[in-house]
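Homework help board

Subject: predicted structure for assignment chain

Our instructor gave us this sequence and asked us to write out the predicted structure in token form, then describe one feature. I got the tokens but I'm not sure how to describe them. Can anyone check?
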Amino acid sequence: MPDYYSYGELTHPQKLQIAIRNVLSIDLSLRPLNSNNKPGGLLEFPENDDREVIIVGDLHANKQNLKAILMDNQNLYKLKQNEAIMILLGDSVHDERVGHLQEMETSIEIMDIIIHLINDYPENVFYLLGNHDTFSALLGKSGIKQGLAYYNAMLEARGKDYVNLMQTFYNSLPVFVSHKYFLAVHAGPVRGGVYRDEIIDVRSATSGQILRQLTWNRLNETRSSPSKKEYGPEDLDKQRGCLGFPVEHPIIVGHNPMWKWGTSDSVWVDILDSKNHVILYSNLVDKSTYLTFKNSPKYKIRHANLKQKKHKYLLGDM
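My token output:
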């Protein structure tokens, strides 16, 4: 868009078009091209990238938590100054609270904020594809077809062209992060692990099962042989090995909260015999949990202050 336009004067489709361009224009040194000469599924940060890393788990339409994380620990200022990057692990849409499964207005609103972030800080804010980032009628919870409900709500609010643009946005997203301090993906590793080139080519015609596993797999809770939809500690180790990392390298995922195994928080560390493994959720209404890495593979579990005085959101009053 011409420089003389202010962001607030742009239409929603124009903002989303810019976000798609930004996602597809990530530097090739960070996002290698796939075999079809298009941006691949891997984000690969170089050894000399010493920026702090802020990792946000599944938000599920909780925009208050996202705003709190941005305001916490000067995170938004760090993004602005190129002192930090933020990685969102996907599934920012679809409120999962009982009684709210069909509410989709907050899903549209939180995507507006994320699109704004990507447009203001395209070299600092990265969104990974999650299994809920879809309009598919197959995506549901407790009998509610959330993917279809999301489609219908956005169609009514923004129109067909905007829905198509949002699908293009989701299709453009990276899937996996490789960093000198950690690995990150929405759901978990593929059974047996996958190699770098396979992640880069994750959207090829023959890689559908790999993409599905990276966005749908869950940690095996029975401690028996995992099914094709699960992963275990050995798969975490194999994934590290496929990418040339030691067993101590942390793997961070979202997707699969483990409430029945305890914790009043929304982060599970080394659960069920897994080692150097974190499951992170960021959508609790009374606790906004996220991780940071700074000059070390030892991460910090942080909780944004949800009771701070209301601040004008620095990206606009959304």
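Reply (TA_rk): Your tokens look well-formed. For the description, you could write something like this. The radius of gyration is 18 Å. That's the kind of observation they're looking for.
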